[in-house]
Each structure stands twice: as C-alpha cells, then as structure tokens.
Amino acid sequence: MSDKSGLTLFLDGEEVPFTRGESIFQVSERHEKEIPTLCYDDRLDAFGGCRLCVVELEGARNPVASCTTKAEAGMRVTTRSGKLEMHRRVLLELVVSENREVDVDELSGYASQEMATLVDRYEARTGRFEGRQSGASRPDDPNPFILRDYDNCISCYRCVRVCAEQEGDYAISIMGRGFDTQITTEFGGILKESACTFCGQCIQTCPTGALGDIKALRHKEIELPIEKTRSICIYCGVGCSVDIMTKGDKIVGILPAMDGPANEGALCVKGQFAFDFVHHPDRLKTPFVRDDQGELVPATWDDALDKAAAGLMAAVNEHGRHSLYAIASGRAPNEAGFMMQKLVRAGLGTSYIDNCSRA
User: Whose CA, among 88, 133, 141, 212, lies 20 to 30 Å from 59?
Assistant: First the structure.
C-alpha cells in the first residue's frame, strides 16, 4: 500500500503511506490514532515540550516525541502500549500536581478543556505528587479581555509561540526556569504596555484556561447550555469565520473558527471581543426619518430608503452631481464596494467616491 510518493511505514502493525516531511504525529493523526498532547497546535511549529505524544520506535533506545520526529520509510511505530500509557499517566499526574486546579469553565477559551479531558481519560487525579506549585497569576493586570491566571500554567508555551509565529507580535515571552518559569511581557509589565494587540490567540490556544476570555467568563453563572453558531465576522471584508457562543438568547463570547478558510483560527481584537453592541440598550432597532417638523420618528425600511434617495436626488438637482462625495465602508466585502461605486457613478453621475480603508 502506498501513495504517490511511494513512502510507507508501519503504524501499530499496519503499513500506511506518508508524505516526506510529515512527522510521526501527523501521520498518526491522519490515520485516526489517538496520541495525546498538550503542547501541540497544528498551526505552530512542533515543540516537543509536554512529552505526552511519545511513541515507541523499533530500534530506538527510548520512546521518541512523535510531533518532532520525522517519518521515515520502513519505520515501525507503536502509538499505544502499557508502557506508553503508564508514562503518559505519570506525566499528567506531575503536571496536575503543580496547578491550582484542573477544571475550568469552557467559556475560558477554545482549547481550555484539553488538559482536564486528558486527566480524566488517564485517571490522573491521584494527588500523589502534590507539593510545590508553579506559576504566578497577574490579577493586577487591568485589561478587560485576557485573564492571566498563571497558577494554571503548564509551560507548554503555546501562547508565546502563537503570538510570535501566527501574529508576529512577540508581546509575551518566557522568564525563569523550573518552578520559577513565568510567561511574561517585556520588563514584566501589563499587557496594554506591551506589543499585545489583544487578538485573543493566546487565549484560544491555552489548554488549561491559564489564559482566559474575561468577557465570556462574565457569563459563567448563567445556568444554561452553551450553543455555538457558525457565522462571519462583520467588522471588515476579509470574511473571518467565527463561532458565536450563546446562552439562551444572549451572546456570551466569540470563538475563532479553526477551520475558517479566511482566518484559520485567527481574529483581530474587534472580531474577538467587540460584540457588546448586539445587546446594547441604545442600539437602534428601526430606521428613523425626520418629519415635517424636523423631528426624528420611526419609519419602515422602504420609507427610510425612499427618503434617502429623494434627498440625494434633490442635492444633485439643486447643486449639481459633483456636490456629492461618497465613502465606502472598509467593513464591506468587494461585492458591496462594487455596488457602491456603481450607485455613485451610474446612479448619481459622479466619480467622487473613496474608501475609508484606502489609507
């Protein structure tokens, strides 16, 4: 059995194809082998820090990290054995022993349940290694978006790596070693004084909830199930896919869609956190037009559009077609921008049109 490359290896006794450059973990994942990991994010360079993904490789002295070991033709790999399962369980017990808690609210972030899920799968809540804890939280950081609860940090560095590799911000880094290891900003300051753009990527990749979505967690006391609805971010024409989290009829948070074709799990600060306007008490729910006395009164959409069209044509008739100047919205997709310029040029007879995002 082979693919176009003709390269195969033996995975748990089964000969499977692979492509040159793939890691053992990638090959195993593609062939539906469940290999646990806490430091792996397929958008990031493999790190090999948690060691949960180790596999047995025939001819190797010790188990190897599957995420950092490249597949080679003829390899014989074992992804699960009694020895490997015991290794993984003990590692999870050690990780848990350093943390304040395992169970965090799923509103914390996209990946926030990963550690708790693995701990339960491997029955690693034994407490036999309890002792010194690592991490120092930053409750003094006043930012309204990102909870920095480092008492739950396991030093997987996914947050640091996504900030550098995906966002290119390098706003957070690693300080210290051993129990003194800390995720920190430059000079140990608060996030708003760093290069952080509050995109929220660090939140969504964190597997323990050490970094959490403050805005979403405000609603954890609402005792209703979380429902997720796939949609498109409204803030620009890129078309980022999002999963809107709701409890009842209330939006409680936004998750980036990891399979979104335009964003692949990335969002900007607006797409991630700026949804309060939906439920704002001052939000307009109907069009308003001015009556004969100049007062704003509710109207239907047809009446409002007719009023706007009449006003535009009155300006053209009285002051000429070049008295109008249009600015298209940077939040609109290309199709809407095209229709806007068509309306202005063909409908109103002027070329005075620009776009607010041109600069």
Answer: 88
CA distance 160 to 144: 20
pLDDT score for 265 = 94
CB-neighbour burial class of residue 155 (10 A; exposed 0-12, middle 13-18, buried 19+): buried
Q: What's the token pair of residue 105?
A: 């609210």
CATH number at residue 225: 2.20.25.90
Q: What one-character-per-residue DSSP string does 298-355 give? A: E--HHHHHHHHHHHHHHHHHHH-GGG--EEE-TTS-HHHHHHHHHIIIIIS----EEE
Structurally, the chain folds into a number of domains equal to 3
Q: Residue-wise over 284-295: b if at least 16 C-beta within 10 A, else e?
A: eeebebeeeeee
> What is the model's pTM?
0.84
Q: Rg (Cα) of the chain, in Å, rounded?
A: 27
CB-CB contact of 129 with 97 (8 Å) = yes
Distance (Å, rounded) from C-alpha 123 to C-alpha 287?
58
49: domain range?
Answer: 8-80
Start-end of H helices in the chain: 24-30, 82-97, 114-121, 158-165, 201-205, 214-217, 269-273, 301-319, 334-342
b/e for 258-276, b at 16 or more Cβ within 10 A? bebeebebbbbebbbbebe
Residue 36 lies in a domain: yes
**pLDDT attached to residue 310:** 93
